Amino acid sequence: MQHILQREQPVLREIARSILTEEIGTAKLDKIIADMETALGEQKDGIAIAAPQIGENLRLFVVSGSLLKKADKNYRGEGGYLVFINPEILKKSREKSDVEEGCLSVRWLYGKVKRSIRVTLRALNEKGEKVERGASGLLAQIFQHEVDHLNGILFTDKADELWEMSEEEIRELQGK
Ligand code: ZN
């Protein structure tokens, strides 16, 4: 099991550092990305994860395209894992909506957060190629949540309303 750090860990509150071009494609960085994918794969309700959540203070997050497809019928993008290195939000719609949010590092709280309904993100992929993509719906929410992680922000800092999942709901989610 890949350990996911919980919210009292200081690394989750730091500003993560940018990844250098020469680090991209190295065995060390590829191993970190693989560990993040493993961690995500082990969580039934996790669609994305940021490097600080496994203790790496780096500007990097991974999204599971396949889980995103299941969770958002309007998502038309690719499956598999999408890797975003040194992501930057270039544009955010002024229009926002209240969305429900949880976090693999804030078990088992959920809350309502105001997020822009559309964003444009620029990043590098795992091969070091520039990617720029617009997103709406759940992916837009994920982009904002994950970039927040890289700036030491957790959704609980922004939520208007928070509630705890019951033990029964947790068991159901874990399929036990
Ligand atoms: Zn999170």
CATH top level is Alpha Beta
Compressed to H and E, one letter per element, the order equals: HEEHEEEEEHEH
Estimate the helix proportion, in percent.
25-40%
Rg (C-alpha, Å)? 15 Å
Assess the beta-strand content as a share of residues.
Answer: 25-35%
CATH superfamily: Peptide deformylase
Explain what you see.
The protein is an alpha+beta fold and 176 residues long. It has a single domain (10-175), classed as Peptide Deformylase, CATH 3.90.45. Helices cover 25% and strands 30% of the residues. It is built from four helices and eight strands. The strands form two sheets. Strands 1-2-3-6-7 form a five-stranded antiparallel beta sheet, with helices on both faces. A three-stranded antiparallel beta sheet has the order 4-5-8. The longest helix is centred in the N-terminal third of the chain and has 15 residues, at 27-41. The chain is globular. The chain starts with 26 loop residues before the first helix and ends with a helix. The chain binds zinc ion. Zinc ion is lined by residues 103-105, 145, 149.
Task: Give a short synopsis of this structure.
The chain is α+β, with helices and mostly antiparallel strands and 176 residues long.
Task: Break the fold down into its secondary structure elements and pairings.
Blueprint: H1 27-41, E1 48-50, E2 60-64, H2 65-71, E3 81-92, E4 96-101, E5 109-116, E6 118-124, E7 130-136, H3 137-150, E8 161-164, H4 167-174
Antiparallel strand pairs: 1-2, 2-3, 3-6, 4-5, 5-8, 6-7
This protein binds zinc ion.
Residues 103-105, 145, 149 line the site of zinc ion.
